[in-house]
Design brief:
This protein is α/β, with parallel strands linked by helices. The protein has helices spanning 4-17, 29-39, 46-59, 84-90, 95-107, 122-129, 143-155, 168-179, 193-204, 222-232; strands at 64-66, 81-83, 112-116, 135-140, 161-165, 184-187, 212-216, 239-242, 246-250, 259-262. Strands 5-4-3-6-7-9-8-10 form an 8-stranded mixed β-sheet, with helices on both faces. A two-stranded antiparallel sheet has the order 1-2. α3 (46-59) runs antiparallel to α6 (122-129). The radius of gyration is 18 Å and the shape is globular.
């Protein structure tokens, strides 16, 4: 894991070198469409307020739970006992990124969604709320956190979501089998190189022309940067977009040669 100062330096370099978030100079019609109609969509969708109300309740919740962390661990917490409030503050996706997940799922009409890493369920909620007829399967390794997420799904009336508990090594195959060929996969549960690449290749077996893979925290550590570089260079990948805190991968046929973009967000 990079230190906060190192990460801040990397973010500054990214910000200065990234393409404008307005789409200027982007010649790919698909990526221009993504920038103008998804990345910069400022509409306040109906689901945002309800999900953010759940977030505010979590941020006030001082209940302590014991967390079994099967990934790279927390950058903030070293103890297995944590308050729900602290998890919501440090581990849950910020509104900006949760709402981007919603817009991606909505714009590309993603009906079959897989998430690796539920946490408290806020990112899951954004993915599921984009279409009540979509099927969302989310995987979580920590039973205590999964229990909180399920309560949040009930509070938001998200009946199109199924949470599977357990180590991803054991649950990913089941999730993929249920969805057959997911339209969208959000990788957010293990910030290490080897597992990230292993899960990527496992999901790659089900990929289609319109599939979208989203990887969280691609610059979180040198390991994740190496994993991201390896994913970008895979022969199946025709387009990637680096948003610094997240990386998007596409497999679309219209890209005759691979194209990689770094875009300010």
């Amino acid at each position: 894991m990079y230190s906060p100062f190192h990460l801040a330096f990397k973010y500054l370099r990214y910000y200065l070198n990234a393409s404008s978030g307005e789409g200027h100079g982007v010649h790919s019609p698909f990526v221009f469409d993504f920038i103008t109609k998804v990345l910069n969509d400022k509409r306040n969708f109906y689901a945002y307020e309800a999900i953010e109300q759940v977030r505010q309740k979590l941020l006030l919740n001082k209940e302590k739970i014991t967390v079994e962390d099967l990934g790279a661990g927390s950058a903030v917490h070293k103890s297995r006992e944590r308050t729900i409030r602290d998890i919501a503050r440090h581990s849950a996706k910020k509104p900006k990124y949760g709402q981007l997940l919603f817009r991606i799922a909505e714009h590309y009409d993603c009906k079959k969604i897989l998430e690796l890493g539920t946490s408290l369920g806020l990112s899951t909620a954004y993915l599921a709320a984009a279409d009540p007829y979509a099927k969302v399967i989310t995987l979580e390794g920590a039973p205590a956190i999964a229990a909180v997420a399920r309560k949040n799904f009930e509070a938001l009336n998200l009946f199109n979501t199924e949470l599977i508990e357990g180590n991803f090594d054991e649950t990913l195959a089941a999730g993929l089998q249920q969805l057959s060929s997911p339209n969208l996969v959000f990788f957010d549960g293990n910030h290490r190189k080897e597992p990230t690449l292993r899960y990527f290749h496992q999901c790659l077996e089900k990929v289609q022309h319109n599939s979208i893979f989203i990887f969280d925290d691609i610059h979180w550590s040198s390991e994740m940067e190496e994993a991201w570089a390896s994913i970008q260079s895979h022969t199946a990948v025709t387009c990637s977009i680096d948003l610094f805190f997240a990386g998007l991968v596409f497999f679309r046929d219209e890209f005759k040669t691979p194209q990689h973009f770094t875009i300010r967000f």
